[in-house]
């Protein structure tokens, strides 16, 4: 039976949605609140595949929501498992990536063992590991190509997760591809292969395959983690102290993302081991050990298969988004698209179309009003994502800038590429301080750090880092025996490698304010059925600096290494003031963004119609 012109549930709540009245909420089972002000589910574990065990309770009034302190829910074991997978994946990713620059740039060290390790004793004190001897430009191009692909391919991975495979299956596919890549990566690092002079071809093939693996895993893992949150709407709970608090979905996702990012950096700290492996033993060991760590992933995925909540793929959701824009352009024209505004967006809402046209063809207009609102808020968040590349350029340097700086400094037997590990170390230390110290303190004092405030703090820290970089690089040029051509000089500057420590620590803390906030925005502001793609767009901000580094690899070399630091110092300083002004609307909290019925497509007009007529046939 056809019901193509039936209008059903076309007008839904605006975003952010207002919760159900308190009298419609069933009383919650006895809850437990731990000493860290995290609400737990009374000893229960999320161990179902079709539904999340939700935290229930009275929903706060607007006044209560605005005045009561907001606390996150604790993490379930399934959420912790997702963080463990990320730890293993990032350990393998950064473990091998940290070796790429030396593997490609430097030749086999004189007096070394032929596997890339430095010479024994005093001869190797200021040597760096090397293998292919292709130079700094080739090393930068290789590294930036890998990073670019690893953050562009998630667009494909996000689409596949949202429309065809679902998040869990997409992660499994990526894990399988990554296992193959890690096996292949060891081959070009074998001494006999390096000695042939043809190791670069199998090396770059393995690198590209690894980028594809990361591209399928990254856009799905964090959203799958946040899907496990038991808090879908703000809920009133009472602490042991008697204080009434709001267990908040956005605060919970923020906490999840902080811990997720913490695990990323615990994993990336594994690059310390690979730095010493390449220096003391050779690149074959540096590439083998991350692969062994990687094999933890399929075991955890197997454990979580029947325990995780897995939202099903939504088929045409990306096509629906395209059709929404087509409808707005058809009704308003391209010229009005730049102005935007309520009239532009409302023109694609079925309720408005029904009012204007008298009817709605649900074969052509098969979304609801809320989906249009969700797309609108996603684009607002994407505006922030476009500024993040500026922070990342400051964080990592343009191209191989920081690696070139370290190669010109006095090493004292320390691997030149080990300094980058102060970045994850700083994050590992700072994350608990922010999670359990600064953020709760600000909440208690009544001055919570809003998303755009956090972004500003992070960019200001990047400004400080760039100023320090400019000072150190300028000092290297002045003291190097080769002057402004210090990178490839046989003798090094007396400037000690330790001066790079603040260069890595300061922006690392900034990442906790900038990157974690962007991940939080990507999940909370994305359409319920399209979180993988929006999260992938957020990740794409990492690809832009890689592309810039690739394009400028022949320019950002001696004697021009100081200039980019001054430019980025100015750019990050300006951006720091854009967030609390231009993007201040993103400070408004969003209460509902991941209801399971909506993620599963059960609130779509077609699904509601099918259920309605199915119930009628049963009667």
Automatic annotation (TrEMBL):
Domain of life of the organism encoding this protein: Eukaryota
SUPFAM superfamilies with a match to the protein in the record: MFS general substrate transporter (SSF103473)
The UniProt record lists the keyword Protein transport: no
Keyword Ligase tagged: no
GO cellular component entries: plasma membrane
Localization of this protein: Membrane
One Pfam family hit: PTR2
InterPro entries in alphabetical order: MFS_trans_sf, POT_fam
Major localisation: membrane
Disordered as annotated region, ranges: 600-619
Entry's transmembrane regions: 170-194, 200-217, 258-277, 283-305, 379-398, 418-439, 459-477, 497-521, 533-556, 562-583
Similarity field: Belongs to the major facilitator superfamily. Proton-dependent oligopeptide transporter (POT/PTR) (TC 2.A.17) family.
PANTHER family: OLIGOPEPTIDE TRANSPORTER-RELATED
Protein name as it appears in the record: POT family-domain-containing protein
Native organism: Papiliotrema laurentii (Cryptococcus laurentii)
């Amino acid at each position: 039976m056809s019901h193509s012109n039936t209008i059903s549930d076309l007008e839904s709540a605006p975003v952010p949605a207002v919760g159900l009245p308190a009298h419609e909420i069933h009383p919650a089972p006895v809850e437990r609140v731990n000493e860290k002000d995290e609400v737990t589910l009374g000893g229960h574990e999320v161990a179902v595949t079709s539904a999340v065990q939700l935290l229930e309770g009275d929903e706060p009034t607007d006044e209560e929501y605005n005045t009561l302190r907001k606390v996150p829910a604790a993490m379930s074991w399934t959420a912790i498992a997702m963080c463990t997978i990320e730890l293993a994946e990032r350990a393998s990713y950064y473990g091998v990536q940290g070796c790429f620059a030396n593997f490609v740039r430097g030749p086999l060290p004189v007096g070394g063992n032929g596997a890339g390790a430095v010479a024994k004793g005093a001869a190797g004190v200021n040597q760096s590991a090397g293998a292919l001897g292709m130079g700094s430009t080739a090393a930068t191009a290789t590294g930036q190509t890998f990073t670019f692909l690893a953050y562009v391919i998630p667009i494909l991975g996000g689409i596949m997760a949202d429309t065809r495979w679902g998040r869990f299956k997409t992660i499994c596919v990526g894990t399988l591809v990554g296992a193959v890549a890690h096996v292949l990566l060891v081959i070009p690092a074998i001494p006999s292969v390096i000695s042939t002079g043809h190791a670069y071809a199998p090396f770059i093939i393995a690198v590209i395959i690894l980028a594809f693996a990361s591209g399928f895993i990254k856009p799905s893992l964090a959203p799958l983690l946040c899907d496990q949150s038991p808090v879908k709407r703000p809920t009133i709970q009472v602490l042991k102290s008697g204080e009434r608090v709001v267990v908040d979905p956005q605060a919970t996702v923020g906490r999840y993302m902080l811990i997720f990012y913490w695990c990323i950096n615990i994993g990336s700290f594994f690059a310390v081991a690979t730095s010493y492996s390449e220096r003391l033993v050779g690149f074959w060991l540096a590439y083998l050990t991350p692969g062994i760590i990687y094999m933890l992933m399929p075991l955890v995925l197997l454990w979580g298969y029947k325990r995780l909540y897995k939202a099903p793929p939504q088929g045409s959701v990306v096509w629906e988004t395209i059709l929404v824009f087509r409808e707005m352009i058809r009704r308003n024209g391209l010229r009005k698209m730049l102005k935007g505004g309520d009239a532009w967006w409302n023109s694609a809402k079925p309720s408005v179309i029904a009012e204007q046209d008298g009817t709605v063809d649900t074969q052509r207009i098969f979304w609801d009003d809320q989906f249009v609102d969700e797309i609108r808020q996603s684009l607002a968040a994407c505006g922030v994502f476009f500024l993040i590349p500026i922070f990342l350029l400051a964080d990592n340097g343009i191209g191989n800038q920081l690696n070139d700086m370290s190669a010109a400094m006095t090493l004292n037997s320390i691997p030149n590429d080990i300094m980058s590990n102060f970045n994850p170390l700083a994050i590992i230390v700072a994350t608990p301080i922010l999670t359990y110290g600064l953020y709760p303190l600000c909440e208690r004092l009544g001055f919570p750090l809003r998303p755009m405030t956090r972004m500003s703090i992070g960019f200001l820290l990047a400004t400080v880092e760039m100023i320090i970089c400019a000072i150190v690089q300028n000092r290297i040029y002045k003291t190097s025996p080769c002057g402004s051509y210090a990178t490839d000089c046989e003798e090094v500057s007396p400037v000690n490698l330790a001066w790079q420590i603040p260069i890595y620590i300061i922006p690392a803390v900034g990442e906790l304010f900038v990157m974690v906030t962007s991940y939080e925005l990507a999940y909370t502001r994305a359409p319920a059925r399209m979180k993988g793609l929006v999260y992938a767009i957020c990740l794409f901000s990492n690809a832009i600096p890689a592309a810039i580094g690739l394009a400028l690899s022949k320019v950002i070399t001696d004697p021009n290494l100081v200039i980019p630091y001054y430019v980025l110092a100015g750019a990050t300083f300006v951006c720091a003031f854009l967030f609390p002004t231009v993007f201040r609307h993103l400070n408004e909290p969003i209460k509902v963004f991941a209801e399971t019925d909506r993620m599963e497509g059960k609130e779509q007009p077609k699904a509601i119609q099918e259920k309605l007529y199915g119930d009628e046939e049963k009667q």
